[in-house]
Amino acid sequence: MKKIIGGITAPKGFYANGKHIGIKRKRKDLAVVYSDSPCHCAGTYTKNIVKAAPVLWNKAITDEQQQVQAIVINSGIANAYTGKAGVLHNEAMAEATADQLSIDKKSVLVASTGVIGKMLPIECVCEGIKVVSQSLEPSNEAGNQAAKAIMTTDTYVKEIAVTFEIEGQTVTLGGMAKGSGMIHPNMATMLSFLTTDIHISKELLQKALSESVENTYNMISVDGDTSTNDMVLVIANGKSNHSIIETENEDYAKFKEAIDYVNTYLSKQIVKDGEGVTKFIEVQVMQAQTEQDAKAIAKSVINSNLVKTAFFGEDANWGRIICAMGYSGGVFEPSKVTLDYKSEGGSIRLIDSGEPIPFDEEKALHILKEKNLLVIIDLHDGDKQAVAWGCDLSYDYVKINGEYRT
Amino acid sequence: MKKIIGGITAPKGFYANGKHIGIKRKRKDLAVVYSDSPCHCAGTYTKNIVKAAPVLWNKAITDEQQQVQAIVINSGIANAYTGKAGVLHNEAMAEATADQLSIDKKSVLVASTGVIGKMLPIECVCEGIKVVSQSLEPSNEAGNQAAKAIMTTDTYVKEIAVTFEIEGQTVTLGGMAKGSGMIHPNMATMLSFLTTDIHISKELLQKALSESVENTYNMISVDGDTSTNDMVLVIANGKSNHSIIETENEDYAKFKEAIDYVNTYLSKQIVKDGEGVTKFIEVQVMQAQTEQDAKAIAKSVINSNLVKTAFFGEDANWGRIICAMGYSGGVFEPSKVTLDYKSEGGSIRLIDSGEPIPFDEEKALHILKEKNLLVIIDLHDGDKQAVAWGCDLSYDYVKINGEYRT
Questions:
Q1: Active-site annotation holds for B228
Q2: What are the beta bridge partners of residue A183?
Q3: Which residues of A are catalytic?
Q4: What are chain A's domains?
Q5: pLDDT tens digit string along A114-141?
Q6: CB A225 to CB B323 under 8 A?
Q7: First-to-final CA distance of chain A
Q8: Residue of A nearest to B52 (CA)
Q9: Which of B132-155 are b and which e, b meaning 16 or more Cβ less than 10 Å from the residue's Cβ?
Q10: Helical H segments across A246-317, by residue range
């Protein structure tokens, strides 16, 4: 597998673009992604009871339908909690895209992010869809424009592409994502879109995506809130000219490796670009009895406000980590725990077999001063593990999310 | 029922005091509470897997034993994650208290709060227990000193006493609590101690406490972390001279009303004195299908960092409330929800039957500028309800919890 330059337009047959169409004041706000041939599709969606209209639309399509050919995304208004009008607006977005591309409206997946409870200016949106659809290009530049257009208050574009070989053919997987930024401080919506020219059954495409999402996007946390609009979509047009993957053979394994790589990269980028983030924190939980325990513990630690503020304060306050592990619901034996902090500034052991180790505060500070931190929790209680990614909690998080909507 | 001046020494037969004995640098750090006759006892404890030594000690006593006669509390060091030495230190605290009061060590309940993983200076502590035990008094002033001595970075004393009548006799219930402050920014430990001269069976004492805690301390949230040391204890010496309460009769109901009142008062005081709190927020969830749904929704809303920062910013950002309801795990029908904000500045409806209502931002700001806010969520879906209490998330929360331990 090789990382290459580009994003969602890197795989064969994919076109895209992104523009400012007038939902936001200035920044780009609409993207269209298109494949010149039909694609298998798969998706994973927010578990929030309050699901935005596009989530319901896409779920029906990826659950029931074999093929799609386009994705249209607006980054101005979430179209969540907008009732029946919102459902109609969502359908209108699909229809406008379909009309321009001469495909069926049910071949168009839709995504939205932005303010909750506000109505889309639907005529303006449909007009914009027309403009963007007429400017689709297969270039990296066009893919990059689309990746820009899905951003809200993200501070940089998140895109990636990788290639690998199946039967001597080059297969490409591209992706773009938006993270926890927001125009109006309303919601930390996470959107991710993957495109690929792999030839794979719909079932295995969904399986690869679902399993990958569990260990990537579902293991990141900026503020622990699950939005009404979160989704990850992958569409595969099969243009890479190898025989179709219909069993979990070694070609499937190659794809799984690639999709894990892409999703891990995008997940980490989302955290690093989180609101007010000054530290990126990776929590590794080793030797747990079950993967579920390892995940629960890793996520509880990365979600704790007390842990997050301690990292912001560069404080080796390991008591808060032990405490967050304790209320995680994950099973472990306190007396077996080993805890290490690690960064480019060095590494330090804070707990060994459940015993606090006296440590040099100067050395700890030297490690914690770095931007990228690693927390290694070894439970010595089994052979399962998990990794979670998160960030500190800073003054700027409060500022960005506390400011009055204007 | 009548609120009176005083705290834990208000009921007949109770003595207390609190002093600085040298665990902390300057502030009071040790309290002793004593009853001149044996008490029935009951307790509820943290569900954190990592339980501090005093939690394990008390749980064994309140689970298995009929009677106790004293409580000793240090507010300097949590004695949590301190292994076998911590267990011995805890026992030494009980023993030192018992020696002074000429009672059995198993008649002494113990509580600690402060830094995790640090060892108690046990000789200093035992010496201090001697001094405090020799200065016990039944006065309100002595009770107030004890309430002061259990504080960490709490900014004010939290105590209360109420009286009610059973069989023409005056029954008194007193209480003191400490909240989310901390000397070293290590842990948001919640401790609460109730004393009463009611004559009641151990079983009903435990039942009243357990049920009351579910709707009071368990419905507050400052930062969502559950400490290794949280506990609520009640001891009842039966001195009020009425016949013993052994069934859930109307006398039991009077006691239940009193304990609910006391616990609600102390719970709210704990939230109001939370770190960096600028707003006190009450979330009422009405007409839910089950009490469990109502509680899950109320707690999810009050725990959301996005909701908390919005209140800090005085922003009528109701989308975040809907979102937090949606991922709460509680069941509700989005299209039936009504949402109101209320304060001394007025009240405003933001959602009616699932439909966002256009509102006057000026009026909303006028309401949100107040220090005490009420969020009323009506699910129109059943007849159960719940109330949760919490606070905003401010710069000062980050500051207090992010500062380096010195």
A1: no
A2: none
A3: 189
A4: 2-272 (3.60.70.12), 280-402 (3.10.20.340)
A5: 878 889 999 999 999 999 999 999 999 9
A6: yes
A7: 46
A8: A323
A9: bbeebebebebbbbbbbbbbbbbe
A10: 250-272, 291-303, 305-312
